[in-house]
Amino acid sequence: MTPRPTPSGSDPKKSAAKAAKSVKKAAEKPDPVAENAPAKKAVAKKAAEKTAEKTAVSKAVTKKAAAKTTKTAKKGTSKAKKVATPVPASPPEVLAAIPVSPEVPTADRDRLLSGTHHDPHGVLGAHPVPGGVAFRVFRPYARAVTVVAGDVRAELHDDGDGFFSGLLALREVPPYRLLVAYEETVQDTEDHYGFLPALGDLDLHLLGEGRHEQLWTALGAQPMTHRGVTGTRFTVWAPNARGVRVAGTFNFWDGSAFAMRSLGSTGIWELFVPGVGEGELYKFEITRPDGSKTLRADPLARRTEVPPSTSSIIHASHHEWGDADWLARRAEGAPAHEAPFSVYEIHLPSWRPGLTYRQLAEQLPAYVKDLGFTHVELMPVAEHPFGGSWGYQVTGFYAPTARLGTPDDFKYLVDALHQAGIGVLMDWVPAHFPRDDWALAEFDGRTLYEHEDPLRAAHPDWGTLEFDYGRREVRNFLVANAVYWCEEFHIDGLRVDAVASMLYLDYSREPGQWVPNVHGGRENLDAVDFLQEMNATVYRRVPGVVTIAEESTAWDGVTRATHHMGPGGFGGLGFGLKWNMGWMHDSLDYMSHEPVHRKYHHHEMTFSMVYAYSENYVLPISHDEVVHGKRSLVSKMPGDWWQQRANLRGYLAFMWAHPGKQLLFMGQEFAQGAEWSEAHGPDWWLLDPAYGAEADHRGVRDLVRDLNVVYRHTPALWQRDTDPSGFQWIVGDASEDNVFAFLRYDAEGSPLLAVSNLSPVVRPNYRLGAPDDVPAWLETLNTDAARYGGGDVTNPEILKPDPQAWHGRPASIQLTLPPLATVWLRPA
Length: 828
Fold this sequence. Notes:
Blueprint: H1 12-26, H2 32-35, H3 38-50, E1 55-56, H4 63-74, H5 78-84, E2 94-96, H6 106-114, E3 125-129, E4 132-138, E5 144-149, E6 152-155, E7 157-160, E8 163-168, E9 177-181, E10 186-189, H7 201-209, E11 220-226, E12 229-237, E13 243-248, E14 261-262, E15 268-274, E16 281-287, E17 293-296, E18 312-313, H8 324-332, E19 342-346, H9 348-351, H10 357-371, E20 375-378, E21 382-383, E22 396-400, H11 407-419, E23 423-428, H12 454-457, H13 472-488, E24 493-496, H14 499-503, H15 525-541, E25 546-549, E26 577-579, H16 581-592, H17 603-606, H18 608-611, E27 617-621, H19 641-657, E28 661-665, H20 694-712, E29 727-734, E30 739-745, E31 751-757, E32 763-770, E33 777-782, E34 811-817, E35 821-827
């Protein structure tokens, strides 16, 4: 006889006799408890009719009788041997649980059916009650549910609407499993309502404070082992929801039986689902305050389907990093503003269209290393539904886009770049998010991630929604996201997009469309606090990283430390670097003019030095400057094809010598004539030796390589980028000649002389003032060299200063200035 626990204190002999009598009579009459309750009688009768193999047992079966049976089984009786071999029709093996009184209360039943129950674990699962342990299960479409606890198998009563329940005479809740029988299969599973919360008290405390700096470890879908059982913990922040259920491929996208529990005032909902692991698709089914339902992707999903599909995917990383040496050097190295820093900006999906992350890892590091760039900057890689947004309208803030592979594939690419000695920056977009109804917009039925004020929530330029930076949970979501990319993907820096749109309440808004802050000003104080917190947190947690602001206004202190107050009363924003949008606009405007007119725009090339040391700057020639009718970089230049290339070469060398770091968008390094398009990427065919003008394009690329090589080995060009004493004009007012000449100094005082002649004429014996402590100068780079496609007007000989004073200096040199070119000279 299969052992069954019984109430303590009963006589084992009487109990055994009563049990045998009960088994004999079970097939002849219904359970006496069900006899007193017509509804339960009907349930028991229905259960009996489902299978001829079901055997009823009464309350009289006692624990001591079960113990006696166990003892007999251990002696090796023939009856025990029969139990050891499962026999479907064996009466003692499968028991019928006593109907639970009461069943699932009507109110709980209705809320579970409608998806509005905040505590399903308080109703479903196994719970001690008077007389034993009550088991309640909700499995729509099931034909039968059996509880398996050790050697006990008890079939629960069918209560209708997918509910099953039963009472077993146990003193405590045992470890148990469920056998859920459907039309054509039986599912053997743990009961997901048999587990305590898998989220710790510390996590809940930090979530409540909005200070969980590793938020991705607490929210989202986390494969794990909980109480010895493998499965996935689902957690989501939805404080306005009446109920949340998780639906996915593991439950045929029917979340009815997978209601999550609310974890109090944090607004967090949680459910541990046993047996569910990596690769499964899922979403959260949220019942809004008005009772309607919405199916949402996980805001913390670490992997997604390939767009246009929108499901989240359970993910755990298995990548083994090989960049420990790189990270150690990064942590110990000089800060970015005192180090060589030249950046190649890339749109990964179109750099080599069709390549995956892993395929890119075979080509991109070698190409960038050959060109000598210190870093790549990736246009946004976080998941986004519309490819035409280039990634700037993000829906999956914690997931690399699935268009090119898995998150581990992206890690493989970052790892390969690091092992090639190349840093990885990425564009990060905390300024706004799209309105897609499966993503963040009104996530739980009310404004949540966006500001509750419609005027503050709607971004006027892009039709998107702005984050509510004043809400601690939203700020936590974004701050942790910045940390996430740096810690989990070893990203070396974040270029923060559209900072200006975050800082000003009146950004792109007319009077009456915005409300001043508490001080009557236009500054978005919440955004200022958020940016300061983000920068302080990232720099504290991840040694050696850099944050870069795309900020197009004159906001004071973008790259000032957060604890240093400025004249406006604000602490610094705490960024490491800032894009110099003013230099970019002015210099490109100057270069677009015919040389004969440039003398009237001379100040556009010199004005940047008025404010060059107000921030730590990057000089950006980015994707924004070569799309939407703006023309490619070489096509902006005036003149014929030779002059366009010459202008481009001279401009690039001027840019590399100017104080600040460099950034160049892909395709511009080889003078692509067409605008960039995300549909087909750079025109690589221009570098095909079979193409007639291939040498023209290759010459420009060779120049970019040499610029980077000389730059890296010349500290004067980067070591004192933010120190005014590292720069001196030789001549900045030669507007009639279109000539600019200046000195750069490294920390030891060693100089480099940069001279640009942006007129189309050769200027022989051009005299320039020079320091008298440098005995001779040697040309180290000339953009007119024949190997770059120029006319080869060079200065091959050593240039020695004359004692003739010039340009306010005690000595001077004479050299030949090639047309539309820049020359770099170093001490011989």
